[in-house]
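For reproducibility, we list the full input for the pyridoxal-5'-phosphate complex.
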Amino acid sequence: MDVERIRSDFPILNDITYMDSASTSLTPEPVLEAILEYYREFNANVGRGVHRLSQLASLKYDDAHRKVAGFIGAQNEDVVFTKNSTEAINLVASGLGLGKGDRVVTTLIEHHSNFLPWMRLKKFGVDLGVVLPGEDGLFNASDFEYALDDKTRVVAVTHASNVLGTISPIREISRICKEQGVLLLVDGAQSAPHMHVDVRELGCDFFIFSGHKMLGPTGTGVLWAKDPEVIEPLFYGGGMIEDVSIDTCTLAQGYERLEAGTPHIAGGIGLGKAVDYLEGVGMDAIGNHEARLTKKILDGLVDIRGVQVYGSLDPAHRIGVVSFNVESLNPHDVALMLDEAAGIMVRSGHHCCIPLMKHFGLEAGTLRASLYLYNTEEEVDRFLEVVWEIARVA
Ligand SMILES: Cc1ncc(COP(=O)(O)O)c(C=O)c1O
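The corresponding predicted structure, in tokenized form, follows.
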């Protein structure tokens, strides 16, 4: 994988080191060009017009759905474009008609986006079970077996933690869910951008992820459902119906059913281009590159006196998201020092995972360095040097 070549597509990297891709990734030139091309050359609404421009926009927008579906091994075109993962999860949580007597099982490591939409259902009488990870952030699949009862309708679990970088045993959880007739939602916001994903192999019923974390534009996310018909739309309006009369309507088939109103057309097309870009580089090559950098960063951090790293250190069970603290320094202060001293951008704080932070007793949260295809060994070396310096004077 030619990292220097890749970096030339990201001019923003000229004078910074970006290690915050778990928050949102950078956007390469070809994706920016695809967005501009839409506005410059065929800026029209989709699925609504017979004129040339609308036909072309619709074609490109449909094509983007097909590419994104292919990216996660989906066999249909029914990936729904949303504005982010949060919207995708809310569509499922609110659209399954869950109520009194139903139970949802989730985990303590979830991003708030895969926790609060389920917690909200308590208002409607839904019981919420929360599976805890071990100290290393890893799950014992059998804990899900104990957590499921005959009322459980849904298990909602992250594929890869946005705090600890740990990977969940989705296939085992899927087997348990299937045995008990329970639907499985996998939050792939941190996995889809970094590893080869095949929703059929994972054995889930819903898979969601964010376009903006995988080189796509902000305002893009994806929901794949094995059977989209089980989700009652949250939004009704233009673009999502087949027919309407004064007292009833027939909903459209396919992704349109869950994409009411004018969608983020340029964003969707940009996301399709991001998929082209990632597939052009190769997901396995990206995964291997990140694994190398992750090992280097983990080995380096654990060797620095005063640095505490969280989550399993076993590279086989993690992605390139590394949470740590330096002595008792506030993580926000350390993040500012990294930026000021060396132009290194890392995230600091709770990472939208306050229940997990409370569980680990981390009042102020952690620092989080997250890597992607454009990061280099030299950047990791420089990062470790600066952390070492900060820890030395702390
Ligand atoms: C694991 C996980 N799930 C969900 C989300 C929410 O994504 P979005 O902000 O695109 O809705 C994030 C964002 O960081 C995440 O890391």
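Residues 3-19+282-393 form a domain with the Aspartate Aminotransferase, domain 1 fold (CATH 3.90.1150.10). The chain has a mean pLDDT of 96. Both points were considered when choosing residues for closer inspection.
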